[in-house]
Design goal:
Keywords: Disulfide bond, Glycoprotein, Immunoglobulin domain. This is Ig-like domain-containing protein. The chain folds into four domains: about 80 residues, no CATH class; about 90 residues, Immunoglobulin-like (Sandwich); about 90 residues, Immunoglobulin-like (Sandwich), CATH 2.60.40.10; about 110 residues, Immunoglobulin-like, CATH 2.60.40.10. The N and C termini lie far apart (about 90 Å). The chain contains four helices and 30 strands. The radius of gyration is 34 Å and the shape is flat. About 5% of the residues lie in helices and about 40% in strands. The protein has about 425 residues and is mainly β.
């Protein structure tokens, strides 16, 4: 195949100019329909080194013998405008993102964006230039992601833009880790205390529930100290400070091994002191004791409409009539526990009716229709404090057996060498 774009014989796919230009120009080609297949070329293109005069005659042997004329119009260089961007977000790993917007430049390349000073754990992502809807100018952006402690509030980094029209354009981008637009950030000069109960899974599985006391709203996390009453058989562990989306710091103290006294209703007190607080702050927490009800577990097979599709089918576990409202739901396929990504469990909701309040929760497991049709067993495992020493009950269903079977199950409990008294 021959190319009509060169005075010499070259492949149609060759990415090379048919003549030379030392500055940028706009190259307008004839209507594409005039070019017989397979010799095709965009109706317009912009670049450097594509043409050398106001007009050129295109000739080529083979399937593209017709001469055509291409017009070249030179365009001047345009320097970019650079704007700092402080994104109001932070990811789960504690990284912050800042960026700079590079706008209104020509030609689109070469252009390069770098950041200084270099930061440990930082990564740069430069997005390619995009032409504006109207006109011939281009826009691009550069995004810098780095750990929050490498970009504290009040500091800044430099965004350097290198373009053919200008050697370098440094712009200062402030490190503002601000609150998302949908929330209102509290002041960082008003420390406040919050206490959190043990995680339900820790209470039911390991009998080693931990209480957490968190001092928030700090400008500087240094100097925080905590004391617990009762102190317990284990020492409290003070965690590393964390910086929230509003730029404030928090420090937490964790008291382990408190499952037994917590379940019996013991009240725990946490007192925190910090240089930013005029006086110590104390908070109390205890388990709410009241009427308790064992959960009823109902395991439902897939609906016939799903089975007819022969794709994924839904197993539904309905847990209802229990109190208190905290419940744990897990799924098994055979004896293998399934990861949480395989099923959806909704939060507990209060059931309608008078008298003592009870709660209900629904969990749906999606499985391959083939696994269900070949007779695999699936179990819904429910954990609740009213289920006795074992804490768990299990209901199993499969296509061959039909009716679900119900058994109590035991869980391996970790030894705990200290409890709180």
């Amino acid at each position: 195949r021959r190319s009509p774009f060169s005075s010499r014989v070259t492949p149609c796919t060759a990415k090379r100019p048919w003549c030379r230009l030392t500055s940028w120009a706009a190259l307008s080609w004839p209507v594409p329909s005039l070019w017989p297949s397979p010799c095709k070329f965009p109706p317009a293109h912009r670049g450097i080194g594509l043409c050398a005069g106001p007009a050129r005659l295109c000739r080529g042997p083979g399937p593209c013998p017709r001469p055509h004329r291409a017009s070249c119009v030179a365009e001047s260089k345009t320097s970019p405008s650079v704007f700092p961007l402080s994104l109001r977000s932070r990811d789960e790993a504690g990284h912050v993102v800042i960026a700079c917007l590079v706008q209104g430049f020509f030609p689109p390349e070469p252009v390069n964006v770098t950041w200084s000073p270099g930061k440990e754990g930082a990564s740069v992502r430069n997005f390619p230039p995009v032409k504006a809807t109207a006109g011939s100018l281009y826009t691009m952006s550069s995004q810098l992601t780095l750990p929050a402690d490498q970009c504290p509030a009040g500091s800044s980094l430099q965004c350097h833009v290198q373009h053919v029209s200008d050697p370098s354009k440094p712009v200062s981008v402030p490190c503002e880790d601000l609150c998302p637009p949908h929330c209102q950030c509290p002041s960082c000069d008003q420390p406040h205390l919050s206490l959190h109960p043990p995680a339900l899974e820790d209470l039911l599985v390991t009998s080693n529930g931990s209480l957490t006391c968190t001092l928030s709203g700090l400008k500087d996390p240094r100097g925080a100290s905590f004391s617990w009453t009762p102190s317990g058989g284990k020492d409290a562990v003070q965690k590393a400070p964390k910086r929230d989306a509003c730029g404030c710091y928090s420090v937490s103290s964790v008291l382990p091994g408190c499952a037994a006294p917590w379940n019996s209703g013991v009240t725990f007190s946490c007192t925190a002191t910090h240089p930013e607080s005029k006086s110590p702050i104390t908070g109390n927490i205890s388990k709410l004791l009241g009427n308790t009800f064992r959960p009823q577990v109902h395991l439902l097979p897939p609906p016939s409409e799903e089975l007819a599709l022969n794709e994924l089918v839904s197993l539904t576990c309905l847990v209802r009539g229990f109190s208190p409202k905290d419940v744990l739901v897990r799924w098994l396929q055979g004896t293998q526990e399934l990861p949480p990504e395989k099923y959806t469990t909704w939060k507990s909701l209060k059931e309608p009716g008078r008298g003592s309040p009870t709660f209900a929760v629904t969990s749906v497991l999606r499985v391959d229709a083939e696994a269900w049709k070949q007779g695999d067993k699936f179990s819904c495992v429910v954990g609740h404090e009213t289920l006795g020493p074992k804490n768990f009950t299990e209901k199993t269903i499969d296509r061959l057996a039909g009716k679900p079977t119900h058994v109590n199950v035991s869980v391996v409990v970790a030894e705990v060498d200290g409890v709180c008294y």
